[in-house]
Design a protein that fits this description.
The mean pLDDT is 92. Helices cover 46% and strands 14% of the residues. It has 9 helices and 7 strands.
């Protein structure tokens, strides 16, 4: 009980502190290690505060490789867990515009190079995808949640949004689908307390060559990806 309360009370000030540190980083003169430092430190701190255990199967993923990561989304806890698991891959998240409007935190997100998508404005959303491709060219590995929001039905994945497929194909990088289980049990959407007893399980699926699909085949890519990830998710879920 103390750990559950401890995490809830301390996460906000910890996030504020790391946001302030991030805003002091000079993006033009910093090394990749300096630029990535505070996001990784925040993720490690949040995971430690939560007290969760992570079981990660990285498959064939190069721990320092340049990819597009596509995975399911159940919890705010997914973000620090992924910073921890993918710490060598220079990840940045594709996130909704409202997060970038949060005082201080939103500025830190933008300054860190996370990718803002305005889902309410189709034209702005398409421009965001093009901007994301430019970010990727700088060595960043984007992390995309194609379900578009946190899933509250933990039995299967939600339908995927097509924008995630477009970004993945335009980026031209190898695509790493992944599935995670139990973050929704530990801290589901709307929860303020955590239950850190379930093990967070992460599984990277076989890497996909983006040349297998063209932009015109994005719907087929979406269907194939959803079927593969949903099957893998259910298998991982069966492990408890």
């Amino acid at each position: 009980m103390f750990r559950r309360l401890f995490f809830t009370i301390l996460l906000v000030p910890v996030t504020i502190w790391y946001s302030l540190k991030m805003l002091k980083v000079d993006r033009e003169t910093s090394t990749p290690e300096e630029y990535d430092r505070w996001g990784l430190a925040w993720g490690a701190a949040a995971v430690k505060l939560s007290g969760v255990t992570i079981d990660a199967d990285m498959g064939e993923v190069d721990p320092k490789g340049h990819y597009v990561f596509i995975g399911n989304h159940q919890s705010n806890l997914d973000i620090p867990v992924l910073f921890k698991v993918l710490k060598g891959n220079r990840i940045r998240f594709v996130a909704k515009k409202s997060l970038f409007e949060i005082p201080l935190y939103g500025k830190a997100l933008a300054h860190a190079g996370h990718i803002c998508v305005d889902r309410e404005n189709r034209r702005a959303a398409m421009q965001s995808l093009n901007d994301a491709v430019e970010v990727v060219k700088g060595g960043i590995s984007p992390v995309i949640f194609p379900e578009g929001t946190r899933n509250t039905d933990l039995s299967e994945l939600m339908e995927f949004k097509i924008g995630a497929m477009i970004l993945a194909l335009k980026a031209g990088l190898p695509v790493v689908p992944f599935v995670m289980t139990n973050t929704g049990r530990i801290m589901g959407k709307g929860d303020f307390f955590i239950d850190n007893r379930p093990v967070v399980r992460f599984k990277a699926l076989p890497v996909i060559d983006p040349a297998r699909y063209t932009i015109k085949e994005r719907e087929q890519f979406k269907e194939d990806l959803h079927a593969m990830m949903n099957e893998a998710y259910k298998e991982l879920l069966a492990k408890g």
